[in-house]
Amino acid sequence: MHLSIIFKAELMNKPFKPAAPILELDLLKTLVAIAETGNFSSAAEVVFRTPSAVSMQIKRMEEMLGRSLFDRDSRSVTLTEHGEALLVHARRVLALNHQIVAQFITPEVSGTVRLGAVDHVVDQFLPVTLRRFAQSHPGVRVDVTVEQTDTLLQMVERGQLDIALVTRCTDAAEKAKGEILCREQLVWAGLKGGIAAEQTPLPISVWQASCEWHHAALKGLSEQQRNFHITFKTSHIAAQKAAILADLAIAPLPLSACSGKVVALGSEHGLPPLPDFAIGMVIASQSHAPVCAVANHFRAKFAS
């Protein structure tokens, strides 16, 4: 009895230590969405909340952890060192949650989808889209092949691909088989403050001759009787950007691919106008449920 009284007394004198806070999955989803989209407004669309609600969620996490997670300015947000560390854990926790759910809920759709895509689509659209698809369809595996449009179309015809995401200049896209997912503006891209566009002959970077962008660029320059030289021949946007960042060439690129020091060149450079182009989707004639699921995911992505 005496020991019991002493033990109770010690407990009463011991300072109360609150339990560690629990970060809800919704908060972690919002953190990941902001990191992937680069701003609160776009992240709000992803998580189906208002921008103010997203801001409140981030404020709540920062208060819970006692750390600043984002550096904010008027145009974008970037993760702090603490935010980067939390992002790694957030993705791991969300992935584990999907694995747990998939273990107990048999997915209605399962199988493998062979997806082909051009470099631009891979660079701009594939990572986020496929990550979300994997979350909603854990039973479907997507195998990706990156090739040129003509090669991808041939692979679909030969039964080697189920879906192909290709690019076409809009006039050709209207006549081609498949469906148009979106249209984009093609621009001359160069280094911000660079001088490549002022040189003679004009140094350019283009893809292989069968590429629509290659044809449009050379056609415009030839009609202007502009002296040019192809200094970079590459089928990868990353390589074209490397040439631009070194101020060794300019290149025809989608406007959406211009960011940072890679900018769309204005009319002051006297460059010929470039046509718009379309991103299209071609689906094999024999399509099973997983293929339709992937196709619908891309339709929803580009519609948004």
What does this structure look like?
The protein is an alpha/beta fold. Helix content is 46%, strand content 21%. α10 links the parallel β8 and β9. It is flat and about 90 Å long. The protein starts with a helix and ends with a helix.
CATH homologous superfamily caption of the largest domain: Winged helix-like DNA-binding domain superfamily/Winged helix DNA-binding domain
Low-confidence stretches: none
The N- to C-terminal Cα distance equals 70 Å
Strand content: 15-25%
CATH class of the largest domain: Mainly Alpha
What about the largest sheet?
5 strands, mixed
Q: What is the number of helical segments per DSSP (H or I, 4+ residues)?
A: 12
- Structural class comes to alpha/beta
What is the tally of beta strands?
12
Please tag this protein with its features.
304 residues, alpha/beta, Arc Repressor Mutant, subunit A, D-Maltodextrin-Binding Protein, domain 2, 3 domains
Provide a short characterization of the protein structure.
It contains twelve helices and twelve strands. It is an alpha/beta fold and 304 residues long.
